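hey so i finally got around to running the thing on that chain from the lab meeting. sorry it took forever, my laptop kept dying and i had to restart like 3 times. anyway pasting the input first so we r on the same page abt which one it is
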Amino acid sequence: MVGSMLQEIEQRADELKGQTVTTIYFGGGTPSILSTQHLDELLVKMRRSFTLAEAVEVTLEANPDDLNSTQLNDWKDIGINRLSIGLQSFHDSDLKWMNRAHNQAEALNAVWAARDAGFHNLTIDLIYGLPTWKGNEWEQNLLELGKLDVPHFSAYILTVEDKTALGASVAKGKEKIVSDVRIEQQYEQLTAFAKANGYNHYEVSNFSKPGHSSQHNSNYWNRVAYIGIGPGAHSFDGSKRAWNIANNPRYIKAIKDGSPFSEEENLSRFDQYNEYIMTRLRTASGIDLVGCKSLFGLRPDEVEPLLWKDLVKEGKLEMVNDRYRVTEKAWLVSDRIASDLFAI
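ok and heres what got predicted. didnt touch it at all, straight out
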Protein backbone atom coordinates (compact mmCIF):
# COMPACT_ATOMS: atom_id res chain seq x y z
CA MET A 1 0.00 0.00 0.00
CA VAL A 2 2.68 2.51 1.01
CA GLY A 3 4.74 1.62 -2.06
CA SER A 4 1.74 2.36 -4.27
CA MET A 5 1.12 5.67 -2.52
CA LEU A 6 4.77 6.65 -3.02
CA GLN A 7 4.37 5.94 -6.73
CA GLU A 8 1.18 7.99 -6.89
CA ILE A 9 2.89 10.98 -5.25
CA GLU A 10 5.67 10.78 -7.82
CA GLN A 11 3.23 10.52 -10.73
CA ARG A 12 1.27 13.56 -9.56
CA ALA A 13 4.19 15.86 -8.71
CA ASP A 14 3.32 18.29 -11.51
CA GLU A 15 -0.30 18.82 -10.40
CA LEU A 16 0.68 21.42 -7.81
CA LYS A 17 3.60 22.83 -9.78
CA GLY A 18 4.18 26.49 -8.97
CA GLN A 19 2.09 26.22 -5.80
CA THR A 20 3.26 26.05 -2.21
CA VAL A 21 1.77 23.25 -0.14
CA THR A 22 0.81 24.64 3.27
CA THR A 23 -0.79 21.55 4.83
CA ILE A 24 -0.40 17.77 4.83
CA TYR A 25 -3.09 15.66 6.45
CA PHE A 26 -2.82 11.96 7.26
CA GLY A 27 -6.42 10.95 7.78
CA GLY A 28 -9.42 8.97 6.66
CA GLY A 29 -9.04 5.64 8.41
CA THR A 30 -6.40 5.08 11.06
CA PRO A 31 -3.00 6.27 9.78
CA SER A 32 -1.51 5.95 13.28
CA ILE A 33 -1.22 2.18 12.71
CA LEU A 34 1.45 2.86 10.07
CA SER A 35 5.03 2.45 11.18
CA THR A 36 7.07 5.61 11.69
CA GLN A 37 9.30 4.45 8.84
CA HIS A 38 6.36 4.34 6.43
CA LEU A 39 5.12 7.76 7.51
CA ASP A 40 8.63 9.13 7.09
CA GLU A 41 8.92 7.62 3.59
CA LEU A 42 5.70 9.35 2.57
CA LEU A 43 6.81 12.70 4.01
CA VAL A 44 10.24 12.48 2.35
CA LYS A 45 8.60 11.75 -1.00
CA MET A 46 6.26 14.73 -0.56
CA ARG A 47 9.17 17.04 0.26
CA ARG A 48 10.95 15.91 -2.91
CA SER A 49 7.85 16.09 -5.13
CA PHE A 50 6.18 19.32 -3.98
CA THR A 51 7.16 22.77 -2.76
CA LEU A 52 6.28 22.76 0.94
CA ALA A 53 5.86 25.88 3.05
CA GLU A 54 8.56 26.35 5.67
CA ALA A 55 5.94 26.11 8.42
CA VAL A 56 3.81 23.41 6.72
CA GLU A 57 1.06 22.08 9.00
CA VAL A 58 1.39 18.26 9.17
CA THR A 59 -1.55 16.60 10.93
CA LEU A 60 -1.88 12.94 11.84
CA GLU A 61 -5.17 11.36 12.94
CA ALA A 62 -4.53 8.97 15.81
CA ASN A 63 -6.48 6.70 18.12
CA PRO A 64 -5.68 7.05 21.84
CA ASP A 65 -4.69 3.38 22.06
CA ASP A 66 -1.98 3.93 19.40
CA LEU A 67 -0.19 6.61 21.43
CA ASN A 68 2.88 6.07 23.58
CA SER A 69 5.88 8.24 24.39
CA THR A 70 8.20 6.48 21.91
CA GLN A 71 5.69 6.74 19.09
CA LEU A 72 4.95 10.38 19.82
CA ASN A 73 8.61 11.37 19.91
CA ASP A 74 9.27 9.51 16.66
CA TRP A 75 6.38 11.29 14.94
CA LYS A 76 7.69 14.64 16.12
CA ASP A 77 11.16 13.82 14.84
CA ILE A 78 9.94 13.12 11.29
CA GLY A 79 8.02 16.41 11.08
CA ILE A 80 4.47 15.71 12.26
CA ASN A 81 3.49 18.83 14.22
CA ARG A 82 -0.26 18.47 14.80
CA LEU A 83 -2.32 15.57 16.16
CA SER A 84 -6.01 14.83 15.80
CA ILE A 85 -6.96 12.40 18.56
CA GLY A 86 -10.26 10.53 18.20
CA LEU A 87 -11.49 10.48 21.79
CA GLN A 88 -15.26 10.53 20.95
CA SER A 89 -16.31 10.50 24.64
CA PHE A 90 -14.99 10.48 28.20
CA HIS A 91 -17.51 7.81 29.30
CA ASP A 92 -16.45 4.16 29.20
CA SER A 93 -20.05 3.11 28.52
CA ASP A 94 -20.17 5.35 25.42
CA LEU A 95 -16.85 4.05 24.12
CA LYS A 96 -17.98 0.45 24.58
CA TRP A 97 -21.25 1.22 22.76
CA MET A 98 -19.25 2.76 19.89
CA ASN A 99 -16.93 -0.28 19.77
CA ARG A 100 -13.88 1.88 20.47
CA ALA A 101 -10.70 0.10 21.50
CA HIS A 102 -9.74 2.66 24.17
CA ASN A 103 -11.24 3.60 27.52
CA GLN A 104 -11.59 6.88 29.41
CA ALA A 105 -8.23 6.60 31.18
CA GLU A 106 -6.42 5.92 27.89
CA ALA A 107 -8.19 8.89 26.30
CA LEU A 108 -7.00 11.29 29.00
CA ASN A 109 -3.52 9.79 29.09
CA ALA A 110 -3.22 10.17 25.31
CA VAL A 111 -3.73 13.93 25.50
CA TRP A 112 -1.26 14.41 28.36
CA ALA A 113 1.31 12.15 26.68
CA ALA A 114 1.03 14.19 23.47
CA ARG A 115 1.65 17.38 25.42
CA ASP A 116 4.60 15.86 27.25
CA ALA A 117 6.10 14.97 23.86
CA GLY A 118 5.80 18.61 22.76
CA PHE A 119 2.60 18.46 20.71
CA HIS A 120 0.96 21.74 21.69
CA ASN A 121 -1.03 21.96 18.45
CA LEU A 122 -3.59 19.22 18.83
CA THR A 123 -7.29 18.63 18.47
CA ILE A 124 -9.73 16.04 19.83
CA ASP A 125 -13.05 14.74 18.47
CA LEU A 126 -16.25 14.36 20.47
CA ILE A 127 -19.66 13.02 19.46
CA TYR A 128 -23.02 14.07 20.89
CA GLY A 129 -26.59 12.99 20.35
CA LEU A 130 -26.03 9.43 21.58
CA PRO A 131 -29.29 7.47 22.10
CA THR A 132 -27.89 5.76 25.20
CA TRP A 133 -27.69 8.99 27.20
CA LYS A 134 -30.30 9.30 29.94
CA GLY A 135 -29.11 12.34 31.91
CA ASN A 136 -26.25 14.83 31.88
CA GLU A 137 -23.63 12.74 30.07
CA TRP A 138 -22.97 15.45 27.48
CA GLU A 139 -22.53 18.09 30.16
CA GLN A 140 -20.01 15.80 31.92
CA ASN A 141 -18.12 15.35 28.66
CA LEU A 142 -17.87 19.11 28.26
CA LEU A 143 -16.61 19.47 31.84
CA GLU A 144 -13.84 16.96 31.12
CA LEU A 145 -13.02 18.79 27.90
CA GLY A 146 -12.70 22.03 29.86
CA LYS A 147 -10.17 20.43 32.21
CA LEU A 148 -7.98 19.39 29.29
CA ASP A 149 -7.99 22.92 27.84
CA VAL A 150 -6.95 21.71 24.37
CA PRO A 151 -6.40 24.44 21.74
CA HIS A 152 -8.88 22.91 19.28
CA PHE A 153 -11.74 20.42 19.27
CA SER A 154 -14.41 19.12 16.91
CA ALA A 155 -17.90 18.11 18.05
CA TYR A 156 -20.09 16.08 15.69
CA ILE A 157 -23.71 15.02 15.95
CA LEU A 158 -24.10 11.24 15.73
CA THR A 159 -25.50 10.37 12.32
CA VAL A 160 -27.25 7.14 11.38
CA GLU A 161 -25.94 5.75 8.09
CA ASP A 162 -27.46 3.00 5.99
CA LYS A 163 -25.62 -0.33 5.83
CA THR A 164 -24.10 0.11 9.30
CA ALA A 165 -24.74 -1.79 12.52
CA LEU A 166 -26.37 1.29 14.04
CA GLY A 167 -28.52 1.84 10.96
CA ALA A 168 -29.73 -1.75 11.14
CA SER A 169 -30.51 -1.44 14.87
CA VAL A 170 -32.52 1.74 14.29
CA ALA A 171 -34.42 0.13 11.40
CA LYS A 172 -35.33 -2.84 13.63
CA GLY A 173 -36.41 -0.59 16.47
CA LYS A 174 -33.61 -1.75 18.78
CA GLU A 175 -32.17 1.78 18.96
CA LYS A 176 -34.00 5.10 18.88
CA ILE A 177 -32.54 8.21 17.34
CA VAL A 178 -32.37 11.29 19.55
CA SER A 179 -35.09 13.91 19.08
CA ASP A 180 -34.30 17.21 17.34
CA VAL A 181 -35.29 19.03 20.54
CA ARG A 182 -32.68 17.10 22.54
CA ILE A 183 -30.02 17.66 19.87
CA GLU A 184 -30.74 21.37 19.94
CA GLN A 185 -30.38 21.41 23.74
CA GLN A 186 -27.02 19.65 23.54
CA TYR A 187 -25.87 22.02 20.77
CA GLU A 188 -26.76 25.01 22.96
CA GLN A 189 -24.78 23.48 25.84
CA LEU A 190 -21.87 23.06 23.43
CA THR A 191 -21.86 26.65 22.15
CA ALA A 192 -22.29 28.05 25.66
CA PHE A 193 -19.31 25.97 26.84
CA ALA A 194 -17.19 27.16 23.90
CA LYS A 195 -17.97 30.83 24.54
CA ALA A 196 -17.31 30.53 28.28
CA ASN A 197 -13.96 28.82 27.70
CA GLY A 198 -12.52 31.12 25.05
CA TYR A 199 -13.11 29.00 21.94
CA ASN A 200 -14.00 30.52 18.57
CA HIS A 201 -16.81 28.64 16.84
CA TYR A 202 -15.26 29.09 13.41
CA GLU A 203 -17.02 26.30 11.50
CA VAL A 204 -20.16 24.23 12.04
CA SER A 205 -18.40 21.48 14.00
CA ASN A 206 -15.05 23.09 14.86
CA PHE A 207 -13.88 25.23 17.76
CA SER A 208 -10.46 26.74 18.42
CA LYS A 209 -8.58 28.99 20.79
CA PRO A 210 -7.24 32.12 19.00
CA GLY A 211 -4.52 31.18 16.51
CA HIS A 212 -5.30 27.44 16.53
CA SER A 213 -7.91 26.95 13.81
CA SER A 214 -7.15 24.09 11.43
CA GLN A 215 -5.26 25.51 8.47
CA HIS A 216 -5.98 22.35 6.48
CA ASN A 217 -9.75 22.51 6.91
CA SER A 218 -9.76 26.27 6.38
CA ASN A 219 -8.02 25.75 3.03
CA TYR A 220 -10.74 23.30 2.04
CA TRP A 221 -13.53 25.73 2.89
CA ASN A 222 -11.69 28.47 0.97
CA ARG A 223 -11.49 26.38 -2.22
CA VAL A 224 -7.71 25.95 -2.15
CA ALA A 225 -6.58 23.23 -4.58
CA TYR A 226 -5.54 19.92 -3.01
CA ILE A 227 -4.65 16.38 -4.01
CA GLY A 228 -5.55 13.20 -2.14
CA ILE A 229 -3.22 10.20 -2.16
CA GLY A 230 -4.30 6.60 -1.62
CA PRO A 231 -7.50 4.52 -1.99
CA GLY A 232 -10.70 6.56 -1.85
CA ALA A 233 -8.83 9.87 -1.65
CA HIS A 234 -10.38 12.94 -3.30
CA SER A 235 -8.71 15.82 -5.15
CA PHE A 236 -9.82 19.28 -6.27
CA ASP A 237 -8.22 21.91 -8.53
CA GLY A 238 -10.92 24.58 -8.50
CA SER A 239 -12.90 23.35 -11.50
CA LYS A 240 -12.47 19.58 -11.38
CA ARG A 241 -12.96 16.90 -8.73
CA ALA A 242 -11.32 13.47 -8.80
CA TRP A 243 -11.54 10.43 -6.56
CA ASN A 244 -9.35 7.36 -6.38
CA ILE A 245 -10.50 3.75 -6.46
CA ALA A 246 -11.70 2.98 -2.95
CA ASN A 247 -10.87 -0.75 -3.06
CA ASN A 248 -7.35 -1.37 -1.69
CA PRO A 249 -6.28 -4.34 -3.89
CA ARG A 250 -7.72 -2.71 -7.03
CA TYR A 251 -5.94 0.57 -6.24
CA ILE A 252 -2.60 -1.22 -5.73
CA LYS A 253 -3.05 -3.24 -8.94
CA ALA A 254 -3.92 -0.12 -10.97
CA ILE A 255 -0.82 1.70 -9.74
CA LYS A 256 1.35 -1.35 -10.46
CA ASP A 257 -0.10 -1.80 -13.97
CA GLY A 258 0.03 1.89 -14.81
CA SER A 259 -3.72 1.89 -15.49
CA PRO A 260 -6.22 4.60 -14.42
CA PHE A 261 -6.77 4.62 -10.65
CA SER A 262 -9.25 7.49 -10.38
CA GLU A 263 -12.37 9.01 -11.88
CA GLU A 264 -13.10 12.69 -12.30
CA GLU A 265 -15.81 15.21 -13.07
CA ASN A 266 -15.61 18.74 -14.42
CA LEU A 267 -17.64 21.16 -12.33
CA SER A 268 -19.96 23.49 -14.19
CA ARG A 269 -20.13 27.14 -13.17
CA PHE A 270 -23.37 26.28 -11.36
CA ASP A 271 -21.61 23.45 -9.49
CA GLN A 272 -18.72 25.73 -8.52
CA TYR A 273 -21.09 28.47 -7.35
CA ASN A 274 -23.21 26.05 -5.31
CA GLU A 275 -20.14 24.48 -3.70
CA TYR A 276 -18.93 27.98 -2.82
CA ILE A 277 -22.25 28.73 -1.14
CA MET A 278 -22.24 25.42 0.74
CA THR A 279 -18.64 25.55 2.01
CA ARG A 280 -18.63 29.25 2.90
CA LEU A 281 -21.90 29.03 4.85
CA ARG A 282 -20.27 26.35 7.02
CA THR A 283 -17.83 28.97 8.32
CA ALA A 284 -18.10 31.90 10.73
CA SER A 285 -16.51 34.19 8.14
CA GLY A 286 -19.37 33.42 5.74
CA ILE A 287 -19.73 34.58 2.15
CA ASP A 288 -17.58 37.49 1.07
CA LEU A 289 -19.83 39.46 -1.28
CA VAL A 290 -16.92 41.14 -3.05
CA GLY A 291 -15.05 37.86 -3.40
CA CYS A 292 -18.14 36.09 -4.72
CA LYS A 293 -18.70 38.77 -7.35
CA SER A 294 -15.05 38.52 -8.38
CA LEU A 295 -15.33 34.74 -8.80
CA PHE A 296 -18.76 34.44 -10.38
CA GLY A 297 -19.66 37.88 -11.68
CA LEU A 298 -22.54 38.51 -9.28
CA ARG A 299 -23.36 38.86 -5.61
CA PRO A 300 -25.18 35.82 -4.19
CA ASP A 301 -28.10 37.95 -3.01
CA GLU A 302 -28.65 39.00 -6.62
CA VAL A 303 -29.67 35.42 -7.50
CA GLU A 304 -32.70 35.16 -5.18
CA PRO A 305 -32.80 38.54 -3.37
CA LEU A 306 -36.13 37.96 -1.60
CA LEU A 307 -35.00 34.59 -0.23
CA TRP A 308 -31.84 36.09 1.26
CA LYS A 309 -33.87 38.90 2.86
CA ASP A 310 -36.38 36.42 4.29
CA LEU A 311 -33.61 34.30 5.82
CA VAL A 312 -32.20 37.41 7.49
CA LYS A 313 -35.64 38.31 8.86
CA GLU A 314 -36.05 34.76 10.18
CA GLY A 315 -32.74 35.03 12.03
CA LYS A 316 -31.07 32.29 10.00
CA LEU A 317 -28.67 34.60 8.16
CA GLU A 318 -26.94 37.78 9.29
CA MET A 319 -24.85 40.40 7.50
CA VAL A 320 -21.50 41.23 9.12
CA ASN A 321 -18.91 43.44 7.37
CA ASP A 322 -20.30 42.83 3.88
CA ARG A 323 -20.48 39.09 4.51
CA TYR A 324 -23.49 36.85 4.84
CA ARG A 325 -23.14 34.13 7.44
CA VAL A 326 -25.43 31.62 9.11
CA THR A 327 -26.28 32.63 12.67
CA GLU A 328 -24.83 30.34 15.31
CA LYS A 329 -28.24 29.03 16.36
CA ALA A 330 -29.17 28.24 12.74
CA TRP A 331 -25.98 26.28 12.05
CA LEU A 332 -27.91 23.14 13.02
CA VAL A 333 -29.84 23.52 9.76
CA SER A 334 -27.04 25.08 7.67
CA ASP A 335 -27.17 22.33 5.02
CA ARG A 336 -30.85 23.07 4.42
CA ILE A 337 -30.18 26.82 4.24
CA ALA A 338 -27.36 26.31 1.74
CA SER A 339 -29.43 24.00 -0.47
CA ASP A 340 -32.26 26.55 -0.51
CA LEU A 341 -29.79 29.15 -1.76
CA PHE A 342 -28.28 27.04 -4.54
CA ALA A 343 -28.55 28.41 -8.07
CA ILE A 344 -30.60 26.07 -10.26
